[in-house]
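Task card 7
Instruction: Convert sequence to structure tokens.
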Amino acid sequence: MSDKRISPQQNKSLHVYARQLAEALNAGGYDVRTTIKVEVDFTEETVKEYMIKPIMKALYPDLTSTTELDPKQVQQVYENLNRLTSEKFAVGVDWPSLDSMINESRIK
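Output:
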């Protein structure tokens, strides 16, 4: 494990990703029950608790919080989760970037 931790910007991006994935899964007609057996709509918090953290724990069992991830680790968690949701539910979300956030604010 690296001594370097996830940056504040990467942590914000992780939360934006969780929110966007929740919105995309909801728009695709999925609910938490159909994906992880709990009957509620997705939220940023449910994506983080039931999807991001289990993948983080599978990849990095010694970590207890997403804030402990280093930049490479957070990218690996994202890539694994995005591949899973893309293959299983045909729902993929790009990693948040400055450009994607600007585009999202223009759309809303």
